[in-house]
């Protein structure tokens, strides 16, 4: 699979060079790759695409619980079976506590991994590409989650803003200020 990923990265770089662009959409690159004949889906690719559609459908299936919260209906648990990794999807209403605890733990670990990667990317940008003030990254989401819960409970953003300012809003303010401020001149 790594070789296929390398090929797709090369195709994307080739597309960007040929079209002289510094940003792309996945749609335009995928259309171009197919038009060029660089990739035709094999039956295994079709199976993978179908699995992705099923995964997406299960992730999107939600219902409202007895307390009025919108929650996911299905949750995956990744297990190792016969030396192969498998995702087993459990309905929230019938899954065991052990399976749900494992699913939540794995999902949280994925979020932590995403945060670590984001921090690495921000640090690299700040160290190597940033001509302005360093972009500050706050990874404490406590107030962000609280704000969303309050909004869902009918509290207004104004009420929340008078109580405390969540770190994400502080980060948004820094990004807005740096976007609206002219870049510093360098000798």
Taking all residues together, what is the mean pLDDT? 84
- Please give the largest β-sheet: 2 strands, antiparallel
Anisotropy-based shape: extended
Low-confidence stretches: 164-168, 174-187
User: What is the number of E strands?
Assistant: 4
User: Rg from C-alpha positions?
Assistant: 22 Å
Give a nutshell description of this structure:
With 187 residues, this protein is mostly helical.
Describe the structure.
This protein has 187 residues and is mainly alpha-helical. It folds into 3 domains: 40 residues; 79 residues, no CATH class; 44 residues, no CATH class. The protein has 7 helices and 4 strands. A hairpin with a 5-residue loop joins strand 1 and strand 2.
Key descriptive features of the protein:
187 residues, two-stranded antiparallel ribbon, mainly alpha, 4 strands, single chain
């Amino acid at each position: 699979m790594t070789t296929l990923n390398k090929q797709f990265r090369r195709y994307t770089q080739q597309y960007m060079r040929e079209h002289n662009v510094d940003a792309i959409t996945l749609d335009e690159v995928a259309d171009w790759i197919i038009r060029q004949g660089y990739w035709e889906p094999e039956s295994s690719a079709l199976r993978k695409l179908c699995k992705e559609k099923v995964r997406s459908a299960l992730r999107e299936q939600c219902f409202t619980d007895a307390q009025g919260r919108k929650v996911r209906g299905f949750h995956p648990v990744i297990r190792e079976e016969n030396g192969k990794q498998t995702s087993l999807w459990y309905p929230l209403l019938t899954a065991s506590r052990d399976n749900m605890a494992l699913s939540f733990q794995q999902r949280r670990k994925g979020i932590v991994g995403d945060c670590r990667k984001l921090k690495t990317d921000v640090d690299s940008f700040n160290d190597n590409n940033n001509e302005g003030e360093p972009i500050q990254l706050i990874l404490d989401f406590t107030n962000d989650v609280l704000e969303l819960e309050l909004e869902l409970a009918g509290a207004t953003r104004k009420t929340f803003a008078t109580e405390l300012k969540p770190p994400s809003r502080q980060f948004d303010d820094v990004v807005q200020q740096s976007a609206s401020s002219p870049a510093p001149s360098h000798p």
